[in-house]
From TrEMBL:
Name of the protein in its database record: PCDC1 protein
TM annotation in the entry: 663-686
GO CC field: plasma membrane
Keywords linked to the UniProt accession: Calcium, Cell adhesion, Cell membrane, Glycoprotein, Membrane, Repeat, Signal, Transmembrane, Transmembrane helix
Signal peptide bounds: none
One GO MF term: calcium ion binding
Biological processes, Gene Ontology terms: homophilic cell adhesion via plasma membrane adhesion molecules
Subcellular compartments: Cell membrane
CDD domains: Cadherin_repeat
Amino acid sequence: GQIVYSIAEETESGASVGNIAKDLGLDAATLSARKFRMITSSSKQYFNINASTGALSVNEPIDREQLCELKSVCILNYELVLENPLELYRMEFKVLDINDNSPSFPLSEYHINMPEFLSPGARFTLPNAQDLDEGANSVQNYTLSSDEHFYLEMQIRGDGSKYPELVLKKALDREQQATHRLVLTAKDGGNPPKSGDVPVIVAVLDTNDNAPEFEHSVYRASILENSPSGTLVVQVHATDLDEGANGEIRYSFSNTTSADLQRMFLIHPHTGEVTVNGILAVQRPLLEMLIEARDNGAFGMSSTAKLLVEITDVNNHGPEITITSLSSPIPEDAVPGTVIALLSILDKDPGENGKVTCQIPDNLPFQLKPSLQNYYSLVTSELLDRELISEYNITITATDLGSPPITTQKTVWVQISDVNDNPPVFSADAFDVFVEENNPLGAFLYQVSASDLDIGENGRVSYMLRNSTVAGSALTSFLSMNLANGSIYAKRAFDFEQLRSFYFQVEAKDNGSPALSAAITVNVYISDQNDNAPAILYPTSQNGSVAVEVVPRLADEDYLVTKVVADDEDNAQNAWLSYHLAHSSDSTLFQLSPHTGELRTTRSMRSTDFLKHKVVVVVRDHGDPPLSSTVTVGILLADTLPQALPDFDDSGEPTPLLNATNIYLIVSLACVSFIFAAFIFFLAIVRL
């Protein structure tokens, strides 16, 4: 038979592995008698069997990496031999790995040489780390220290194994950094994990990738026309960041420099000194040469610098200003930076005498910008407003740098065209219109006016009534408007007693595109006319009869007979009422208050006064012309209200208080009273 045991490496001595007797079904008591023994090809005896119990235990700790090295499966084979009878059993001990080894690299430091001309994406294989553990305890991943030029990427070989690669992420520049120090770290998958790292040093190899660079792109020098041969003009200097022959520099004139100038001047190939060689026989005051600096690399790189040599000259030419292009008029909504004109400014003098500065006044919304050589662009620098300034006279001043300088001026006339950027504006925040009632149909009421700062169609204003209602009716049933001039007309007669005021809105719109508009409120106040006569409210008459007031026969002076009450639907002075006596049957008996309408007696009543009186009261307003109403009041002198009121004829003649009948009644009443008094007196005497 065969039995398999598993045991972790480095298990301590004496640790139990199993019971061989039980596992093989043997009698433990017979093991010693049957002369058992364990046979193995290993040089060490790693296990023991207890002869009494059959217990299998560790005799010596096992180092799996030492025993099996890099094998993925580590197995120890044993044979158990028993006699009487002879039996043979096979035993396999599978040694399990533990994470007891850290990853390690073969070398303590790795060096990689990289030419600086490599493009991003270039790859370099990095060393694999070794870990004597197996499975998850072996190397699982790699990491690289942070660097902007490199990153790490894992690759898989055809046999499925992985290896790390160093990938160039950003182009190298030896002149900026010649050495890059990285750290490659390998980690296993144990718990806890173990790691090992190794420095990776990248050396950047130089290539001839830097051209010589002059200290100045332009060298300027000034010499006299009669300078002798050998006079130093200027010394140029260039540097090259490369090493060795790649950084050695030689100076010469560029092939683009004319042969005449190369004969007039010499340049030292090593020092860069430029000197005069012969007579300066030139007509131009400014000489331009290109100097080339070339290194000694295999593929020599070069750069050039300009040398400007000024031959002293007399400033005898002024700048010439030519307008090559002009856009006028320009719209007022042109954005800042809009090009208006293109100017060419040229000075025929050489050198400083031919250099020109150009400017315009600072208080203008324009500026000059250099364009091509000797050209300037006249552009807007601020927003324009035609309503403030509709045109500009721009004076361009060009001055050369000669001594003394010469100045030339030229004026450019720029017109500003209108855009619809201003809405109509009314002259007031609101308009108040006063109109008398009973106006004729079509009467002119008011003319609203709005102004627009724009011109042309943008400034042509039309008017319209905004839709609204007045007293429940459409506004257009009350008013009409002239669209062109803003005149407002009445379409109906107004009645102050029905409508005293109302308001509406007028919209003014220009004819621009898009049109701009504004609105204003118009308040209409209807003024009163004296078109209503006073209405008598009290006293009132029915069916044309005279109103009658009863007054005691012997009423005292200033007795209130009645109060005439009237109302006028008009307003203000047209409704101010005054009261007047137009007629009175006895002018000495009654008086009327002109302000209150109170009719009072002027004296006490007498027995001789007539019983009936008639007065006519006129109620008059203060209009122009005034209107009035009258009321006739009949006054009856009686102590009690009679059952039937007497008629007050139109003659107005008063009835006398003492007529024949009245005298008879008075005498009879006096006699009866006297007899009654005498009887009372008699009764009193009898009792006493």
